[in-house]
Design goal:
Layout: E1 2-7, E2 21-23, H1 44-51, E3 57-60, E4 84-86, E5 92-94, H2 100-110, E6 113-118, H3 125-136, H4 142-149, E7 160-163, H5 176-189, E8 200-203, H6 211-221, E9 227-234, H7 253-264, H8 266-280, E10 287-295, H9 314-329, E11 334-340, E12 350-353, E13 356-359, H10 361-368, E14 376-382, E15 397-403, E16 409-415, E17 422-429, E18 433-442, E19 460-462, E20 464-466, E21 470-475, E22 479-487
Parallel strand pairs: 1-17, 2-3, 2-11, 3-6, 6-7, 7-8, 8-9, 9-10, 10-11
Antiparallel strand pairs: 1-14, 4-5, 12-13, 14-15, 15-16, 16-22, 17-21, 18-19, 18-22, 20-21
The protein binds alpha-L-arabinofuranose.
């Protein structure tokens, strides 16, 4: 039995809806065959499925691809667009059928904000500045005129701009001092054309626990930007070797808990980078944008190694649940996060094969958690038990909670013990419950959905009982639960 306390009188702030953001790169079948058809038009069944999780923001065009991308290649009549080679991802041909207008059309259909990552590694300041002018300039100007010529009468008002991607690696192998200088220069020429929605500039931040990168960039470029990104993937590398990340579907108990342990390290990353940003750049409240996170395993056997296509199991669902709980509980630091990636790449929401589509266990977690978006985070405390053996020292359950504008409360819990159920007593402070509804996603750690059996891992109702000061329920082994409390 575990007791979970929810204190409706204390909050770390509002959970920015953008924490539930996504990422789409020109990589494998994320764009063509995923978000879009081969001709670059939105793929209707995928868009329809994604509407179910209320995507708040979508990052594009990469990833490593961003620092090789020249946006002019992807605008204008499709027959005249340049065909290029995607040098980062499989060396495949990219015909640019999906470019700026097509991306913004996907965002329009999803009802989400676009987040465009510009090319710092191999582009120019002028090229990047022109892209912003192309998207946002309302009046007469060379770029606004070009946009109109290409069918975009009204400005798109893109607010979120990334100043390069992984410039410590695929984006130019830079030292933080060099990147900080470039970032200042680029940020200077990225102009706001709509004073109601000034640009939100996101600098390339660190990989994992590279605290020096954060310190130098925040110190030297912090005044010119609004946020720093963080990339942190859940990896189970054998002997640190990227060629052996482990199978997404066939794994030992040791690998299960290794992945969950790595996922939980997100808390340490968020806390430490946040602390450095506040300390070295106190004059400006910089946000932390975790714009790449999620699991990264070996590709599905028989698929192109450069396409990063992997299956998605109940283990992935637990990683998503743990990570989103961490983000919710650190909503005073994390202003946006973008799981990698939205379709057919890494920890995806949907997988497709020809005309077929399936929803992954991770999709279901995003759906169960979606009422956290823009809600008021609530303080929680869980009386946990520390697990042993392969899970040595990991807490058995982890929670977050929030209160929506109508007063209802969402409590989400990740229960990682694969051997036993966990009865919980949830005590609510500062609010009385009139009703509570539970939902649970559960299965064997390696359970996953296939095109033939797409409902193997899907949410179902979970019984709850109201008590005087809250409710009780039983969490099955390896489960993600969501409780919606209607206040009295
Ligand atoms: O998401 C896949 C890749 O991971 C991205 O392109 C890159 O930014 C990161 O290394």
């Amino acid at each position: 039995m575990a007791q979970i306390f929810i204190n409706a009188n204390r909050s770390a702030g509002t959970i920015n809806k953008n924490i539930y953001g996504h990422f789409a790169e020109h990589l494998g079948r994320c764009i063509y065959g995923g978000l879009a058809n081969a001709d670059g038009t939105p793929r209707a069944d995928v868009i329809e499925a994604l509407k179910g999780i209320d995507v708040p923001v979508l990052r594009w065009p990469g990833g490593c691809f961003a620092d090789t991308y020249h946006w002019r290649d992807g605008v204008g009549p499709k027959a005249q667009r340049k065909t290029i080679v995607n040098t980062n991802w499989g060396g495949v041909t990219e015909n640019n059928a999906f470019g700026t207008h097509e991306f913004l059309e996907v965002c329009r259909q999803l009802g989400c904000n676009p987040y465009i990552c510009g090319n710092v590694g191999s582009g120019t300041v002028q090229e990047f500045s022109d892209w912003v002018e192309y998207c946002n300039m309302p009046g007469v100007s060379p770029m606004a005129d070009l946009r109109r010529q290409n069918g975009g009468d009204a400005p798109f008002n893109v607010q979120y701009w990334g100043v390069g991607n992984e410039n410590w690696g695929c984006g130019g192998n830079m030292r933080p001092e060099h990147y900080a200088d470039l970032c200042r220069q680029y940020a200077t020429f990225l102009r706001s054309y709509d004073n109601d929605a000034p640009l939100y500039k996101i600098a390339c931040g660190p990989s994992n626990d590279d605290y020096r990168w954060t310190k130098v960039v925040a110190e030297q470029a912090g005044r010119y930007i609004d946020a720093l990104s963080l990339h942190y993937y859940t990896l189970t590398l054998k002997d640190g070797d990227w060629q052996h990340k482990g199978s997404a579907t066939e794994f030992s108990r040791c690998e299960l808990y290794e992945a969950l342990r790595q996922a939980m390290r997100m808390e340490e990353m968020v806390e430490n980078h946040g602390r450095i940003m506040r300390r070295v750049c106190p004059e400006k409240k910089l946000g932390l944008v975790v714009d790449e996170w999620g699991t990264w395993f070996d590709v599905e056997p028989g698929t192109n190694p450069g396409f990063l296509y992997q299956q998605n199991t109940m283990r992935d669902a637990l990683v998503a649940a743990l990570t989103l709980n961490i983000f919710n509980n650190h909503c005073d630091t994390v202003v946006m996060a973008n799981i990698a990636q939205i379709a057919n790449v890494l920890q995806s929401m949907v997988l497709t094969e020809g005309d077929k589509l399936l929803l992954t266990p991770t999709y279901h977690v995003f759906k169960m958690y979606k009422a956290h978006q823009n809600a008021r985070q609530l303080e929680t405390y869980a009386e946990t038990r520390l697990l042993d053996h392969e899970a040595d020292g990991l807490p058995d359950v982890q929670v977050s909670a929030s209160q929506q504008a109508d007063g209802s409360i969402l409590v989400t819990a990740a229960h990682i013990d694969d051997a036993a159920s966990l009865p919980i007593t949830v005590r609510l402070g500062g609010v009385k419950a009139a009703a509570v509804e539970g939902a649970v996603l559960t299965g064997a750690p390696a359970a996953y959905n296939t095109f033939d059996a797409p409902e193997t891992v899907a949410p179902r109702a979970l019984a709850t009982t109201l008590t005087g000061d809250g409710f009780t329920a039983v969490l099955p082994p390896c489960s993600v639960a969501a409780f919606t409390v209607t206040p009295a």
